[in-house]
Amino acid sequence: MSVISKSSVLLLPLAMLAVPVALSAQQDPYESQINVYGDRLPDRSEMTKGPEVEGIISARKGDQIQVTTVGGTRTTLSIAEYTQIKSTGGFLGLNRNKLTADSLLNGLPVTIATLQWDGGLVADKVDLRDKDLKVASMIRSGTDQRFAEQTAATEALRSRVADIDQYNVKNTTNVNFDTGRADLSAQAKNDLCATANTAAGMDNALLLVVGYTDSTGSDEVNQALSEKRAARVVNYLQQACGWKPYRMLTPTGMAEADPLADNETAYGKAQNRRVAVNVLVSKAVDGLDDL
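^ that's the sequence the OP posted. Answer follows.
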C-alpha cells in the first residue's frame, strides 16, 4: 500500500474543498441579504467601467447575485440582458461556451468584469469554469432533505481543512492507466467504489485525488493528462460510487512527479501511470472510536 508523501501534499492549495456551500433550489437562506431596488438599469453605453469582482456566488435573487470574496467581502451585482456569461474548459482551457443567467448557481466560483452607475454594479462579463459548473449543478440537483445535511457538513469541514498537516492519511488506493489514456478499467472501477465504501464508514473522512503520469511525453502533455486522469476518477467516485462532492478535496495533477517506480523500465512506467485516491481523516478525531 502506498502513502503519499508529506512533501507532495504540501504542494497543494490549502483552500481545497471542491465546492462551497450548496443552497436549496426551493429556498435560498441568503436571499434576505440582497435588497432588490426598482430602479431600471441604464443602457450599457451610459455606464463606466467598474472593478473586477472575483469570488463565489453566495446568494441569488431575481436578476441580482451576491459574490463573496476569499476575504469575506460581499458584493451585490445586477444581471442585465447584455451580460455575457462564458465557461472555460477543454485542453488548456481554450474551449469557451456561452451560457444563460440560469447557470449562475450558488457556490459557483466566478470572475466578473463590471460596469458601474449611481445605482450600483452591473455584471458585464462573467467567466467561470466548466468543471466548477458541473459540480455546482450536481449539488444543486440534490434532494431537498439533503441540502441541510450538505450545508452543515460543508461548513464543519471548511473550518477544519485549514492545513493539510492536520490530517492523517488512513490509506491510499492507486488505479492505473494505459499510456496516454485516461480510461478506467473494470478493476479500477471496482477498486474506486470499494475505497469509497470503506471511507464512508470513517467519521469525517475526505478523499484527496492526485493524478500522475510516467516520463513519456512533454511536461505540458503530462500535466494535462495527469489532471484529466484525476478528473475522471473524481467523476466516477461521485457519479457511480455515490461519494458526496462536499467530502472531496480539489483534485490535482502532478504529471511525472513522485514516481512509485523506476521510469527506465516498462514495469516502472506502468506503476507510475496512476491516480492515487487518499483517504484523509482529521487528526482531531482520528482514533476517537478506539477510546
